[in-house]
Amino acid sequence: MQHIQLGTIDYTILIIYFVFVLGIGWALRRVIRSSEDFFLSGRSIPAWIAGLAFISANLGAQEVIGMAASGAKYGIMTSHFYWVGAMPAMVFVGLFMMPFYYGSRARSVPEYLKLRFDEKTRGLNAITFAIMTIFSSGISMYALAKLLELVIGWSFHASIILSAVIVLVYIFLGGLTSAIYNEVLQFFLIVLGFLPLVLLGLKDVGGWSGLTARLATVATNAGFAPGAWSHSWRYMDAPSHNPMGIEWFGLVMGLGFALSFGYWCTDFLVVQRAMAAGSMTAARRTPLIAAIPKMFMPLLVILPGMLAIGLHASRGGFLPIGSDGQPNYNLAIPMMLAHYMPSGVLGLGLTALMASFMSGMAGNVTAFNTVWTYDIYQSYIRPGRSDGHYLRVGHAATVFGIVASVLAAYGATRFNNILDMLQLVFSFVNGPLFATFLLGMFWRRTTGHGAFYGLLTGTVTAALHYGLTLPRGAVPGIKGGFLGAVLHTYPSEMALNFWTALFAWTGCFVATLVISLVTTRNKTDEELVGLVYSLTPRLKEDYLPWYKRPVILAVLVLVGSTILNVVFW
Amino acid sequence: MRLDVRFPIGGMFTILGALLTLYGLASDQAIYARSLGINVNLWWGLVLLVFGLVMLGFALRGARRSSSDST
Predict the structure, then answer these.
(1) Do A23 and B8 touch (CB under 8 A)?
(2) Within a domain: A32
(3) What residues of B are in the A interface, CB distance below 8 Å?
């Protein structure tokens, strides 16, 4: 494969970006006086900044490369991750869960679990979360380095070291505030860096109708109806009618409910951004403000993949063919950049790619160092030390987190589509978690034992389901069926992952419910004020202007995503 | 005293926009064959420049407002 040739101008743009991200860290170094400043930005971030950081932290390598890859592989159906998955979950966390996260003054999601349930539930969540965070950060770094090596010919090791050192420096200096400010900058860079690519690609294929015509070829070549790549719902009646291999029920319940609520409502990576907001209403608005640009993200991250596969079908050879004989979907964005962007905007596009990797990685690292310091170190290793001690531990954890991610980066190599693998991990650990929070926040009878053993049951249910089923055409092993017997075969990996998440959620929900009923409550009503819905006074928002009221923003978001679902039906 | 994030964002996009605009004017037009004959550096550079200046404008207005509040 021919490497992209970069000019002086492209390197200049990249260097200007590096100077600004490091400069933000440098400018913020004096703001850090306590551990709360370092880990929670002193709870003083305005809602719009927290909101943009909220989506930017999620807009990492997995999102940009993975969503474009899925756009090529599955077409516009990929938008279900946004308009069915993210939107309702983001509305739910803003309206119904943030009052307890923010109101309890918990400093992390695991700490909320400690306040609401008990120590062991917090420990389980903190440890699995810390491991998972390092793992995702490593995958992110691996994907970046591999891609840059393939596309530009940069050394794999040099890319890893460079991106790791830059992220390390700016978080070390300015803590969460630095990560959040850079995420806002990175958000704008990602949007403005990829937009010209999408516009040129669309113009080249002759707009949406030209793209639909090309995608019809893609669909019929793959043995589907011509509209299978350009309609999000029309072919969801049966798994065999659409490329994702799932029917509407599995999608809505597995992705829309179990997976998305598990991620957006309980993952500390995103929730931390809202916890850093300056007030309760700012914290509640954070996910809702984030949802507005998030709604239009498919245009930026899914459409390039659809354009790439459309051009691949009509012109041939647009995407390189991988070792499995399939086009290498992960190269959709880099190939589009190479094809359309002359020196100048090419540098901007690559810098945007770099920015997305860094925002995702910084999100993981800041979430990791907080959970490590507050929920593991302060709770189990050295409790009762001075705040200055924990601030130093936070700095050390930042270094450790990055070194561990680098090691993880060298470990990640298996799936063709990074997204599928991440969904798998999320479905084991996150799928059950939402059931715990749902019962914990809305049913005061839920006990600590119920939560803990419920979570374990959920994770075991997920592993059992995954180990006893297989996607069609796969061999038993990492893709499922590793327990020997294959009881059911799903039409696709996606379908298997969605159903695993749903099994995990159901297993946890039922187990938590039953165990809570047979065990005695370990928290009194007084202890649960501010942690459980029925025991917490309702918030008054009448004094806010309409555009600042969470309920009104939530309605706008839901109406907007409904319209988008209908338009691309 | 806290940093207003709109300053670095505005500053970076103003610099990048100016750079791309100038490069678009100076560069050999033959490189725009791949971008469908559009001088995308010039046009997108102008978009970034306007975005950067608007951000800087908001940041300056914010700074003036907060300094008049404190006096």
Answers:
(1) yes
(2) no
(3) 2-3, 5, 8-9, 11-13, 15-16, 19-20, 23-24, 27, 31-32, 34-36, 38, 40-41, 44-45, 47-48, 51
**Tokens found for residue A374:** 């507050």
Please indicate, yes or no, if residue A357 is contained in any of the structural domains: yes
Predicted TM-score (pTM) of the model is: 0.92
- Domain, as residue range, for A184: 8-24+39-567
Note the pLDDT tens digit of each residue in A28-86.
988 888 888 898 988 889 999 999 999 998 888 778 888 999 999 998 999 999 999 99
- Least CB–CB distance from B24: residue in A12, A181, A344: A344
CB atoms within 10 A of CB A150: 18
**Would you say A175 and A351 are in contact if contact means Cβ atoms under 8 Å apart?**
no
- The residue assigned the tokens 């004017």 is B25
In this complex, do A204 and B36 lie within 8 Å of one another by their Cβ atoms?
yes
Minimal CA separation from B32 to chain A, in Å: 6
CATH number for position A301: 1.20.1730.10
Residue of A nearest to B20 (CA): A344
Of B15, B23, B36, the CB nearest to A344: B23
Residue type, A210: G
Domain count, chain A: 1
Per-domain residue ranges of chain B: 6-70
Mutate which: A17, A24, A28, A177, vs B, most B CBs within 10 A: A24
Q: How far apart are CA A27 and CA A40, in angstroms?
A: 18
Tokens of B45: 């550079």
Residue A29, domain member (yes or no): no
Tell me the pLDDT tens digit for each residue of A148-169.
888 888 888 888 889 899 999 9
Q: Are A503 and A490 in contact (CB under 8 A)?
A: no
